[in-house]
Amino acid sequence: xxxxxxxxxLFQNNSSTTSVNNIKLxxxxxxxxxxxxxxxxxxxxxxxxxxxxxxxxxxxxQSGANYTNLQAIKNMMxxxxxxxxxxxxxTGLAGTxxxxxxxxxxxxxxxxxxxxxxxxxxxxxxxxINEKGINNGDxxxxxxxxxxxxxxxxxxxxxxASHTLSQYEKQYRKAMxxxxxxxxxxxxxxxxxxxxxxxxxxxxxxxxxxxxxGNKLHYQSIDISL
Length: 226
Hints:
By secondary structure, the protein is mainly alpha-helical. The chain has nine helices and four strands.
């Protein structure tokens, strides 16, 4: 599926071009423009088309270009699903793009499968040991984690699922830091420690200490069984 990241090339600045494929953007809503679109198989009443048109109009206003063509319109439409939601070019999923409208709604805790949570927990343990507790992500593939959780979540909750996973990440790391400091109260990130402390840290016991408060998760720092 084609993806468009630079909208400028959808337009021709020169209004004197004579190709029959060129369409003046401002004329798309006219009877003649609508007929041309319909004849090309474009559903002008679809949310997909309306979202694509809105983006092209915005790009036109910014660039000053006012001519496009049928193929460019179809290409732009392929960036949106049937609900008019933008599709992420990397994952092919809709409902994962943060906008002013979706940002606030995404800040909530939703259900994430135990398999995914446990997978992330175990991967974080490896990173914590390899990086001596420094959170730089060099030994993990966080993009894969977030794509995984988005794929298993309904579109309407995908951003919230990403927020939730980030909250779990923070609390898992807090549990690991807490476990090390119970052995060495002077430990700080970057210092060596006994790796077995983290290797033997139990997912189940850590999860018992994670509680929800509003749109955040909190790890209760108390004695845990290793």
